[in-house]
Design goal:
- The chain is an all-alpha fold.
- 71% of the residues lie in helices and 0% in strands.
- It contains 6 helices and no strands.
- The longest helix is centred in the C-terminal third of the chain and has 29 residues.
Length: 135
């Protein structure tokens, strides 16, 4: 029977590492606190290497690069969707962004707000320009 996935606080992990560092065996700690030996080994390794239990602090350089590349691909896909709609009128662009909002981060909402402000400013500027040229 498989175990239910559990999460442990950084304080708990640190206490387990300290028990190990004070001479208690890995097997005894795992058995007594009902944790897997592999989890305890990972906590010990992470604490010794970085002093942190956070995943992002313990990633390799390649893993960090992969995370950044995935973020960039996501951003470029969003931009591509927007550019595909760029020949459409402004309302259609906003509709495309909103329709695909589940794919995007908050920056898509910011883009929509910025685009609306720019359109309002441009419309306001054009109306002022027409007004000044006719008077």
């Amino acid at each position: 029977m498989s175990r239910q996935r559990r999460t442990f606080t950084a304080d708990f992990k640190l206490q387990m590492v300290k028990l190990y560092e004070n001479g208690k065996s890995r097997a005894d700690i795992a058995r007594e606190y009902d944790i897997t030996p592999s989890a305890l080994d990972r906590w010990i390794k992470n604490h010794q290497e970085t002093g942190s239990f956070k995943a992002e602090d313990n990633r390799s350089q390649e893993e960090n690069e992969l995370v950044e590349l995935r973020k960039e691909v996501h951003r470029l896909r969003m931009e591509n969707d927007i550019f595909k709609a760029s020949s459409a009128d402004h309302g259609t662009k906003i509709d495309v962004i909103r329709h695909n909002a589940h794919k995007y981060s908050v920056s898509a909402d910011v883009f929509c707000a910025k685009a609306k402000r720019q359109q309002q400013c441009a419309t306001s500027y054009k109306s002022q320009e027409v007004h000044t040229t006719t008077t």
